[in-house]
Known about the structure:
- By secondary structure, the chain is an alpha+beta fold.
- It folds into 2 domains: 1-30; 43-133, Beta Barrel (Lipocalin), CATH 2.40.128.
- It contains 2 helices and 9 strands; from the N terminus they run ααβββββββββ.
- A 9-stranded antiparallel sheet has the order 4-3-2-1-9-8-7-6-5, with no helix packed on it.
- Strand 2 and strand 3 (70-77) form a beta hairpin.
- The N and C termini lie far apart (74 Å).
- Residues 5-30 have low confidence and may be disordered.
Amino acid sequence: xxxxxxxxxxxxxxxxxxxxxxxxxxxxxxxxxxxxxxxxxxxxxxxxxxxxxxxxxxxxxxxxxxxxxxxxxxxxxxxxxxxxxxxxxxxxxxxxxxxxxxxxxxxxxxxxxxxxxxxxxxxxxxxxxxxxxxx
Length: 135
């Protein structure tokens, strides 16, 4: 009986480890997580993104510009975080990493024609925040 109980516990233990490994891979592959690799984005695609974005309801305002060929986001109204260089994972989707920021934070731009019309801040487990281009 003891051998059967030991075998059962080993099987349960292996199953729990397998579930955790699969769950970890699924989480790591979720959009906006650090597992998404950085990709090269054409300069023309990046040049559609700079501008000012705001969400009046929430009292947030961001400035997006290019710095040495990288997209930089500066919070001009809202929580005081230093400017951050966004890491491209597609031409319109970026990881937003930095000290004090939540893991998995991302920014996705909605582009119409030659420029972005809005951006969406994505944080796992939280409502998305849409910010319209205002300049």
